Amino acid sequence: MKTEDLIALLAHDATPVRRPALPVRLGLVALAGAVAAFVILIPWLGIRPDLAVAVTGSTYWMKTLYTLGVGVAGFALAERLSRPGAKGRIGWTLAGLFVIAILTIAVSQLMSTSPDQIRAVFMGSSWDKCPWRILVLSLPGLVVILWAMRRFAPTRPALAGAAAGLLAGGVGATVYGLHCQEVAAPFVALWYSLGMVLTAAVGAVAGSRLLRW
Amino acid sequence: MLRGLGGNAAAHAELLGVLAGYLRGFLARKMGRGAADLEDLVQESLLAIHLKRDTYDTSQPFTAWAFAIARYKLIDWYRRNKVRRTESIDEASELFAGEDTDEAAVKHDLGKLVSSLPDKQRALLEDVKIAGLSNAEAGLKAGMSEGAVKVSIHRSLQTLMRRARGED
Fold first, then answer.
1. Numbers of helices and strands, H then E, in chain B
2. Whole-structure pTM over 0.90, yes or no?
């Protein structure tokens, strides 16, 4: 086929770009992921019975703001990495800021913890379950986010997949926060982060295969 | 570009025409002038630019976006060709290696790929491309609405892009 013929052919398909804009579609699938995680959480683990009291305290919001923040950073990264030629600087900066924030809170809590309590503060009572539960709650979101991103044009598929995983992980961890009663910042900084990083790793592996075009 | 995004066919064609010249120059520098696959890759890039045009952020420079797509297609092409060569070395047969190259040329020629489409889709493409019918005229001939013609053409183009990479 001659290139002019191809161009003439493409002009026949010059419909206005009218599907919702890329960030809107990404936001919708992330929301779908949140709903899916919630629907799994209710029968599986349930919501913490003291949620009404917890939302009046600061530890609940420390966790939620951290995981939501990672989700927002993942969203910014996934949105940029879905477009050829765009840089993900805002997303990296956001992710860095939220990690620094949680580390700062964690360190300041550790400073006022007596040495024999440090292990308990780190391990809580659910350290061995927390990252896996976050991963499981995040997977449905990861699937729909990757499915949406296949229609976009990520030029670095593995990195874009990791960004999708960070977004899904942030959403999943936020929903898990409705169940989890851990209160210590070091616990959140270690195990919540690990759950979200696991999801990002799954996203990177899946992305390097699924996001090629 | 913005008029093309808005659905203005003439503006879209004009833009793609100008872009084809730039892409040819860019890809020729990277692949070596006269590379056999040069025009195939120009076409693959144009097709991807067309199909992925909703990922263009209108607040960003258009050329950076378009060339990033061409670069991606180029890297993908390198990767595929390396894989193909490795496979033929694994087969340890010079004879098959020659065959592979021919097959690859056929695989990547969009014109030849068109003939692998389902009959109805292929007929529509040929009506608008070769016979130069408008979408409405082609629809009349095939007994379809203009909208259905557009959908069919769009699907065909997506299939072509996938098959040019050797998927399916």
1. 9, 0
2. no
Gap between the Cα atoms of B34 and A10, Å rounded: 25
Name residues whose C-beta falls within 8 Å of residue B112's C-beta, 6 or more positions apart in sequence.
B106
Summarize pLDDT for B40-82 with one digit per residue, the tens.
899 999 999 999 999 998 888 899 999 999 999 999 888 877 7
Q: At what angle do helices A193-210 and A58-81 cross, to 10 degrees?
A: 20
Token reading at B70: 């061409």
In Å, how far is A209's CA from the nearest CA of chain B?
12
Domain annotation for chain B: domains and CATH numbers: 1-104 (1.10.1740), 109-168 (1.10.10.10)
Q: How many residues does the structure list for chain B?
A: 168
Please check whether residue A9 is in contact with residue B128, taking contact to mean a CB–CB distance below 8 angstroms: yes
**Residue A136 corresponds to which tokens in the numbers above?**
């499981």
What are the tokens at A100? 């620094």
d(CA A182, CA A211): 36
Contacts of A165 (CB under 8 A, 6+ apart): A74, A138, A142, A196, A199, A200, A201, A202, A203, A204, A207
Closest Cα to residue A105, out of A64, A62, A70?
Answer: A62
Cβ-Cβ contacts under 8 Å, A14 against chain B: 4, 7-9, 12-13
ipTM comes to: 0.87
Touching check for A86 and chain B: CB below 8 Å? yes
